Each structure stands twice: as structure tokens, then as C-alpha cells.
Amino acid sequence: MPPDLIVGHGVLGRLLARLAVAAGHGGFTVWERDASRRDGADGYAVVDPADDPRRDYHAIYDVSGDAGILDTLVQRLAPGGEIVLAGFYAERLGFDFAPAFMREAQIRCAAEWQRADLLAVNQLASEGRFSLDGLITHHADARSAAGAYRTAFEDTRCLKMVLDWRTAA
Fold it and tell me: Helix (H, G, I), strand (E, B), or coil: what is residue 81?
């Protein structure tokens, strides 16, 4: 089922949104709390969750990495809807059972990208139907890895960091 809502506009959120657009699925929303990450949308809307009154999403894809977000997502789910967990969660996930039970919520964990997925994305990009532009926001020399890792994990403007190993010996 294509997403009605993608939660998070980091690299994975942008990839999911771009794939949905390339597949012809429109009308979905992307949530992003951090205003500095709301740019870069092409063919979809990115909004602050606080500004979204909708409570009938059928398919919510969470790529936020926020381990405490499940209760919020369940509240926004249509009866019988599905939440797909696709982010990296550093902490244990949990949720209130009663609201999920009342909505007959389905919760699924996304699979790791497989070779076929990568080949499909590569084909879409080769055909010009999918862009990888703007996903890598930072570059650093591998000799500066300590600072680069701080940037990658602490600077919300950093979507993806590439370390250049050509000068490392």
C-alpha cells in the first residue's frame, strides 16, 4: 500500500517520497518537525505535524527514528490502517495497546533494501524518473572523520555525509 503519510524528511523520507511520486502516487503528506528539513520537496507537501489536523491515514510510513512516536501515529491512523516502521530506532519501541486495538492497527517492520530494490531505483534514476539530487549534503576528508561524524549525527541540516578516503594513507 502506498503511503498516505511519511514521517520524517531526512534521506529515507525523501527517498520514499520521491519513489511514491515516481510510481504515480500523489496526495500523500510528509511530516517534519525540524523547519530546516522541510525544504527539498518536489511533488509533495512537507508540513509540521502540529499543523496537520488529519486523523484518517491508511498507510503511515515512519522513518523519523523517534522511538516514542507510535502513540501519536496510532492517533492519526484510520481504522484498519497500517504503520510501517522503517527508521533507525536507537531505543526500544512501545505503544499503548488500547488505542491501537480500537483502530485494529497493523504494525509492520520494513525490510532492508534488497538487490532488486537497488536495481529498480537505479533504473528509475537512469530513465530520469527519479532524482538522487540533494541527498548528500556534506563531504569531508577521511582524516577529519571525528568532526565529520559529529556533524553527521548532530547537525540536522546534514542528511548524508560522505567521507573522501582518496587522501587517507
Answer: strand
Strand segments, DSSP code E, in the chain are: 5-7, 29-31, 45-47, 57-62, 77-85, 106-109, 138-141, 161-164
**How much helix, strand and coil, in percent to the nearest 5, is found in the chain?**
35, 20, 45
Given this model, what pLDDT does residue 132 score?
87
Q: What is the torsional sign of CA 44, 46, 52, 54?
A: positive
pLDDT at 111: 87
DSSP class of residue 103?
Answer: T
Per-residue pLDDT reduced to its tens digit, 35-51: 989 998 988 999 999 99
Q: Across residues 123-137, what is the average pLDDT?
A: 90
- Residues 54 and 77: beta-carbon distance below 8 Å: no
| 147/70 Cα distance (integer angstroms) | 33
pTM of the model: 0.90
